[in-house]
Design a protein that fits this description.
By secondary structure, this protein is mainly alpha-helical. It has one domain (21-272). 59% of the residues lie in helices and 3% in strands. The protein is built from eight helices and two strands; from the N terminus they run E-E-H-H-H-H-H-H-H-H. Strands 1-2 form a two-stranded antiparallel sheet. Strand 1 (19-23) and strand 2 form a beta hairpin. Helix 7 (212-228) packs antiparallel against helix 8. The radius of gyration is 21 Å and the shape is globular. The mean pLDDT is 89.
């Protein structure tokens, strides 16, 4: 029997070695380089944004912030994965939770870790927390873009079976062609989110309303992630959780709610400021 016509249009999965550099027994993976590049590029971008008014902190403080963000991403991302995605396993194998090099990171956990680290940093340095958060989220899409591309190179977190012309057969995904959902996320969470926040930060005075840029990013991410999850293959050991929803969708709901609250808060604060009575002469 002749193959289905659409099979001739399938895109081949690129044969890219997940290990970028080998030096003897040392193997440096693209995933690790994506994290490193994301931190460095994000750090430089925050420097650039901070030079534009309103200036939130001194240059040396941004360098300190980078260390706090790295701790928040790594510790929060790993702890989030342990708690949200594979808690039953790590209850019986708690030491494996420390084996970060074996994979297993959660964006939602990393987001919580970054928020907590930014809050602690702002308290320690006596800086405005929401204004710092606006700078941090403006740089987040850079890391998301690189991270999703690394997921694609690793052939992990692929999509559900599909007969679309751009579907791919992933090495670890069986014989069925699948959605390249990592690329969907790279486009929405990375490229589109960065362009949106860049334009808002440069063409408007949005940073004068602390928390508004953060709220917009959180809403954008939550909606984008929720939609992509419909074509992303659920985690094998979790499957669909409630009413056909994946864990990623369920975790995105509080992110959406918090983002909407930040937007409401920023808009309400501006409205109340505009209604405040003028000081008497």
């Amino acid at each position: 029997m002749a193959p289905e016509p659409h099979l001739f249009l399938l895109l081949p999965f690129p044969d890219i070695d997940p290990v970028a550099i080998r030096i003897g027994p040392l193997a440096i993976r693209w995933y690790s380089l994506a994290y490193l590049a994301g931190f460095l590029l994000g750090w430089r971008y925050v420097h650039y944004l901070n030079r534009r008014p309103p200036r939130v902190m001194e240059t040396v403080q941004i360098d300190d912030l980078l260390f706090w963000m790295m701790l928040g991403v790594v510790l929060g991302g790993r702890l989030g994965y342990v708690l949200f995605y594979n808690f039953a396993f790590y209850v019986h194998e708690p030491l494996q939770a420390l084996a970060i090099w074996r994979g297993g990171m959660s964006f939602h956990g990393g987001l919580i870790g970054v928020a907590l680290a930014a809050w602690l940093f702002s308290r320690r340095k006596r800086l405005p927390f929401l204004a710092i958060g606006d700078l941090v989220v403006a740089a987040m899409p850079i890391g998301l873009l690189l991270g999703r591309i690394a997921n694609f190179i690793n052939g992990e977190l692929y999509g559900r079976a599909s007969d679309l012309p751009w579907a791919m057969v992933f090495p670890s995904g069986g014989p069925e062609p699948r959605h390249p959902s990592q690329l969907y996320e790279a486009a929405l969470e990375g490229v589109a989110a960065f362009v949106l926040l860049f334009l808002l930060a440069h063409l408007t005075r949005i940073r004068e309303r602390p928390g508004l840029l953060s709220g917009i990013f959180l809403v954008w991410y939550a909606v984008a992630r929720f939609l992509v999850e419909f074509v992303r293959e659920p985690d094998t050991h979790l499957g669909l959780i409630v009413a056909g929803a994946t864990m990623g969708q369920l975790l995105s709901l509080p992110v959406l709610a918090f983002g909407l609250w930040l937007i409401w808060r920023a808009c309400a604060a501006e409205r109340y400021a505009g209604e405040a009575p003028s000081p008497k002469p």
